[in-house]
Amino acid sequence: METKKRKISIIGSTGSIGTQALEVIEKISDKFEIIGLSGGKNTELLKKQCEKFKPKYVCSNDVDFKFDGIKTLYDEKGLEEICSNQENDIILVAVSGKIGLKPTLKAIENGIDIALANKETLVMAGDIVMQKAKENGVNIIPVDSEHCAIHQCIKNIKQVDKLIITASGGPFLHKTKEEMNSATVEQALSHPRWNMGKKITIDSATLMNKGLEVIEAHHLFGMNYDDIEVVVHPQSIVHSAIEYKDGSVIAQLGLPSMHIPIQYAITYPDRYEGIKSKSFSFSEIARLDFEKPDFDKFPTLKLAYNMGKIGGSATVCMNASNEEAVFAFLDGKISLGDIYKITDKMTQNHNVIKNPSIDEIFEIDNEVRIKTKELIKRL
Ligand SMILES: NC(=O)c1ccc[n+]([C@@H]2O[C@H](COP(=O)([O-])OP(=O)(O)OC[C@H]3O[C@@H](n4cnc5c(N)ncnc54)[C@H](OP(=O)(O)O)[C@@H]3O)[C@@H](O)[C@H]2O)c1
After folding, report:
1. Helix, coil or strand: residue 229
2. Is residue 24 domain-shared with residue 105, that is, in the same domain?
């Protein structure tokens, strides 16, 4: 019997996650109908995606962007319109940065399930987002490979004692702290395992990405920070694990590929062959290494734990200042080591609001970005 096609929109379809999601959909095109696509600056690619996938709606940041036969929307309002469209069964939120938060909330208000790649949404407003999802009966299915792994391992969260999140350790795992802190942009962008957008690649080099993932895991699975452990696993084969109350550990393994968690998230609870990774062989892999993270070399990870534990607007401040510092590093204005110094200073100077509203979150985000840019200028 033919199953009903799942109607999907992808916001951020021109990015690393977005393009891989379209590769998945192309492979199992009989399972999906595309409602909306969106891009930021890459209008060339967005145009090609419109030609190939013929969505009903497209959203661009370029006011001159138009495509015959497809309703064109613009900017954040356009993203929100796509995400409010109840034709959608699921929205893949694959934009990077704070732009993901409002469209995600719109989808939740409209009862539409979400495949969530955009971790900033939970780092900025995890309490509000998860509460609203619960109230509206919306499933939030993680796309991040670590959270996808945990999602696959958990049957009953009440029986889980600990989440174990793996980290590849990034390009500087075996470099000294000094080598890491003075690395070039090119060195920081050459991640040994994953090919991703620039912002997340730099965060992976400093391990801030792992810190953001710890906060994401806290919100997604409702675990205390003390029960979320990060372990460095350079081969990126074990994508994460959980420890049950009786000490049993269940891990999810696979060759590193973002196609698989994306496919899992957008087809959940079904599973299809789709883009299938090479068959797994323990004997070919031969060994799996694990080590404790070096919090001295990667202080951003410690900072993220601390800000997560403080909660409220502390993670908003950390996220915004880190993002501005990452952009400044990519622009050659500061060193890689300065990213931590800036983020640490900004969070130390921040007056935490315990339960900020969405408006307050955006106000704080703006204010922190302005102050961070000033601090960067003074450096
Ligand atoms: N890449 C991964 O493997 C991976 C893994 C786990 C989680 N994530 C998370 O997934 C999200 C996306 O990551 P990515 O690596 O795919 O990033 P990316 O390659 O930089 O792509 C970002 C996407 O968002 C769009 N975008 C950026 N700013 C925008 C704005 N102001 N308005 C509208 N659209 C905007 C970009 O459009 P243009 O390119 O057209 O400008 C692009 O489509 C991030 O939150 C990241 O942390 C990524």
Report:
1. strand
2. yes
Helix/strand/coil for 6? strand
* Spatial separation of the C-alpha atoms in residues 311 and 192, rounded to whole Å: 32
CA distances from 121 to 114, 126, 315 (A): 12, 7, 11
pTM: 0.97
% residues pLDDT > 90 (the chain): 96
Ligand 1 centre from 45 Cα, in Å? Answer: 14
Residue with the smallest CA separation from ligand 1 atom 5 is 144
Q: At 2, is the pLDDT very low, low, confident or very high (cuts 50, 70, 90)?
A: low
CATH of the domain at 18: 3.40.50.720
> 41 C-alpha to center of ligand 1: Å?
11
- Positive or negative CA dihedral for 235, 241, 243, 248? negative
Task: Determine which residue's CA is closest to atom 6 belonging to ligand 1.
Answer: 144
Name the domain boundary from 86, 120, 143: 143
Residues 92 and 124 in one domain: yes
- Overall average pLDDT of the 315-323 stretch: 98
Ligand 1, CB within 6 Å, residue ranges: 12, 14-18, 39-42, 61, 94-97, 99, 117-120, 144, 194, 196-197, 200, 258
